[in-house]
Amino acid sequence: MSAQPDPPSSSGDTHKPRVAVVFGGRSSEHAISCVTAGSVLAAIDPEVYDVIPIGISREGRWVLSGTSPEQLAITDGRLPAVEDTGAAVVLAGDPTSRELVIAQPGAVPRALGEVDVVFPLLHGPYGEDGTLQGLLELAGIPYVGSGVLSSAVAMDKEYMKKLFIAAGLPVADYLVVRPRDWERDKVGVAERVAGLGWPVFVKPARAGSSIGITKVAGPEQLSAAMETAHEWDPKVLVEAAVVAREVECGVLDSLDGDIPETSVVAEIKVRGGHEFYDFEAKYLPDEGTEYDVPADIPARVSDEVRRLAVAAFLAMGCEGLARVDFFLRTDGSVLLNEVNTMPGFTPVSMFPVMWRESGVPYPELVDRLIKLALRRPTGLR
Question: Is residue 105 part of a domain?
Fold first, then answer.
């Protein structure tokens, strides 16, 4: 069992903002959330902020975490996880107190004190999808990142694409397969998918980190791909494959409230036998994936990617940060792929790397996001 940390002290004349770093969670991206948290915990300046690390187990239990940042790294292929052994932590949805409370069976609840801001480093459902954001809104606690609606829309690829189309932004052809569609008429679904042209990508509609995605070359592979996606989500998105380069751009809210800022554009080059940017290519070492930061593309294309990144950020009502992913086709045109409202956030993840190459080093990036959150009220805005 890991030793439990002492609650940060709020005594003294100088108040340091208290930051609760929340990570883990119930989604398929639990391990990646832990990796991200390890990096952020190591980067937050303890001279400036009091930090409370809170892990959420795979079952959804909130615990006061005593795990060190080093223990939250991927080591020898081992994925980290929140140990369900710490003191249970409860956040009441009460904006008059904003307190975290330790609640152990048979013991008197013990207050950890008020929290000034939450850094929710959760990826996927039950964290990045507006659910945690809603709890924090009820509790009246400021938090890093987008609000309830934009978080929910970004997590659901169907509605994200509908919003892009409504805003006049370019996307690849796609269709959505709900569970009742697949159960009642597999032949009809297969015919609709064939209308996109082969190959296609079959994806869980509300998952991330490329988990559950299959590249399907023809109709004989469709059923197996659907079953793989259904392991993670009953709703499935099927996208037409695009012959294109994969590029990304980071977006940050401005501290002065001006138009959001964009990073340099980066390109992902998938090597090592991977047909696309899957989980192993993203997160495991020696998988052959290469990154060009900045991307070797014409200035006019880079400008268009950055323009569309801000347009997507604003269309979705995002706040704080986002990574916007694109397809750059051979004719030079650009398609929006998706917006990630809480992207991977280790120092070697694409979002921090793009900002590092844009002149914002990792510790400064973490500090800026906390400052942005502290300045932003909860509630309607």
Answer: yes
Please report the DSSP string for 259-282 in residue order: SPEEEEEEEEE--TT-SS--HHHH
**Structural domain ending residue among the three candidates 240, 255, 276:** 240
What the block records as the tokens of 180 is: 């009742």
From the DSSP assignment, how many helices (H) and strands (E) are in the chain? 11, 16
Beta bridge pairs of residue 291: 268
Q: Which among 255, 158, 257 has a CA at the least distance from the CA of 204?
A: 158
Judge whether 381 lies within some domain: no
The pLDDT tens digits of the residues spanning 215-250 come to 999 999 999 999 999 999 999 999 999 999 999 999
Residues 186 and 172 sit within 8 Å (Cβ to Cβ): no
- Domain ends where: 240, 263, 286? 240
Q: Quote the number of domains for the chain.
A: 3
- Which residues in 270-349 belong to E strands, given as ranges? 290-292, 321-329, 334-340
Q: Could you give the angle at which helices 157-166 and 148-155 cross, rounded to 10 degrees?
A: 110
Q: Rounded CA gap, 227 and 186, in Å?
A: 12
CATH number at residue 100: 3.40.50.20
User: For residue 251, what are the β-bridge partners?
Assistant: 262, 322
Q: Which structural domain, as residue segments, surrounds residue 193?
A: 174-240
Dump pLDDT digits (tens) for 52-74: 999 999 999 999 998 788 889 88
